[in-house]
Design goal:
Blueprint (H helix, E strand, L loop, with lengths): L18 E3 L2 E3 L6 E6 L11 E7 L2 E8 L7 H5 L4 H8 L8 H15 L5 H28 L4 H22 L8 E2 L2 E2 L7 H24 L2 H7 L9 H5 L3 H5 L7 H4 L20 H25 L21 E9 L2 E9 L5 E7 L1 H13 L8 H8 L9
Antiparallel strand pairs: 1-2, 3-4, 4-5, 6-7, 8-9, 9-10
Helix pairs in contact: 2-3, 4-5, 4-11, 5-6, 6-11
């Protein structure tokens, strides 16, 4: 007997004995409720999470999201660390784009302490956040194709993302985790020749992503598997707290960079696209346009930012820095939508409370569990990936 069958939450006496095939409990009498676990170790799962599915035939009748298989308990850990010690911890809230955690925490500390970030540092922060968006989108856009069997796109995305990680390593010393954005500014100026090398990387990416376009959006199989599938009703957007590309694909033109400008975004020209079809295909298309737009934004930043200047404001000793009593909410626009930190300081060297408002909780729990009802088990991976989530952001 499969061990998962013992914990499904139903009265076992109502169901006949079953055979076992891997993680799938097979009901030999057919059309009875059986259990299917997808994840936590599965190529069609966005990170270390698991979906507990109750199915009738191949139709889902109940879905439950399970997380906590990787990093967990961040918010309580933050309360036991000094502010500067929170930085190497908070970046793991979302491995795919850790820099937004750096920015939100640094900006919260600066707002509570009344610190003004120098001009050059603001440009450098804007650059790093858009580089983070680019490398994240290079995973998720072709990754969506991978859920329908287009594995070559995933390999293309890995290669192109590595090009951006090369630039991150050159700038910060790290490929995935950077800790480049710190209270008061950033850790350093651009290395000599960095702009030229980054522009060369952007050119290669921009020329190549047309292949991702052709592979996915002109592909009959991808269209058949995604058009009309995973529909998000526009009336759900506010009630479920849907943000980012998921909201824009449903007709809501929402982007923190436009709605609540921060750093240098009000000096850049960009127009996030929206649509109304609100299915997997449309969300993927919106993200592909975001990919193109991000390449252009980085080009604009490189052309407009100063080459030299002060990169960090004067701050107290970070190991003995007592942040003034108060509270604040700082938000940014990650590749997945609004990403915010609510920070409460009590006047000590340790944060009283840091609460994350990330899109993953609403997208991967309340929304996903609702969307999967009535869906086919073959579409679970496509629907889940189309919502673009980071599991540690949920079990925080």
């Amino acid at each position: 007997m499969n061990k998962h069958w013992l914990n499904i939450g139903y009265d076992r006496s109502k169901y006949p004995e079953t055979g076992v095939d891997g993680n799938l409990v097979i009901d030999k009498t057919a059309h009875k409720l059986v259990k299917l676990w997808q994840g936590p170790n599965h190529p069609g799962v966005t990170g270390n999470m698991s979906i507990e599915l109750t199915i009738s035939g191949d139709e889902i009748v109940e879905a439950k999201t399970h997380v906590g298989y990787l990093h967990r308990g961040f918010e309580k850990l933050f309360e036991r660390r000094k502010y500067i010690q929170v930085f190497p911890t908070c970046i793991r809230l979302c491995v795919a784009e850790p820099d937004y955690n750096e920015y939100n925490l640094a900006a919260s500390v600066e707002e509570l302490s009344g610190i003004e970030v120098p001009e050059v540092a603001q440009w450098l922060r804007t650059l790093v956040l858009e580089m983070a968006r680019l490398q994240s989108l290079l995973r998720v856009v072709p990754g969506q194709g991978g859920t329908t069997g287009l594995g070559i796109g995933v390999q293309w995305g890995v290669y192109l993302r590595d090009l951006i990680l090369d630039r991150f390593e050159e700038l910060t010393g790290g490929r995935v985790y950077h800790m480049y954005i710190i209270p008061g500014g950033v850790r350093g100026l651009l290395p000599e020749g960095f702009k030229k090398r980054l522009k060369s990387t952007l050119k290669e990416i921009d020329e190549f992503i047309v292949n991702i376009d052709n592979l996915m959006f002109s592909n009959a199989v991808f269209k058949k598997r995604t058009i009309g599938v995973g529909y998000i009703d526009p009336t759900w957007v506010d009630s479920y707290g849907i943000v980012g590309p998921n909201a824009r694909a449903a007709g809501f033109k929402r982007d923190v960079r436009k709605d609540y400008p921060y750093l240098k975004y009000n000096e850049l020209e960009f127009d996030p696209q929206t649509a109304t079809e609100s299915d997997i295909y449309t969300r993927s298309r919106i993200r592909w346009h975001d990919l193109k737009m991000t390449v252009d934004l980085i080009q604009q930043i490189l052309d407009k930012m100063p080459d030299d200047g002060i990169i960090r404001a004067q701050t107290p000793n970070v190991l003995h820095w007592k942040i003034p009593k108060g509270e604040t909410y700082v938000r940014s626009e990650s590749s997945r939508g609004e990403y915010g930190f609510y920070v409460v300081a009590d006047g000590t060297e340790y944060p009283r409370r840091i609460n994350l408002r990330g899109p993953s909780y609403t997208h991967a729990v309340s929304l996903l569990e609702h969307m999967l009802i009535g869906a086919n088990i073959a579409d679970v991976a496509s629907i889940m990936v189309s919502l673009q989530t980071c599991p540690p952001e949920i079990e925080r």
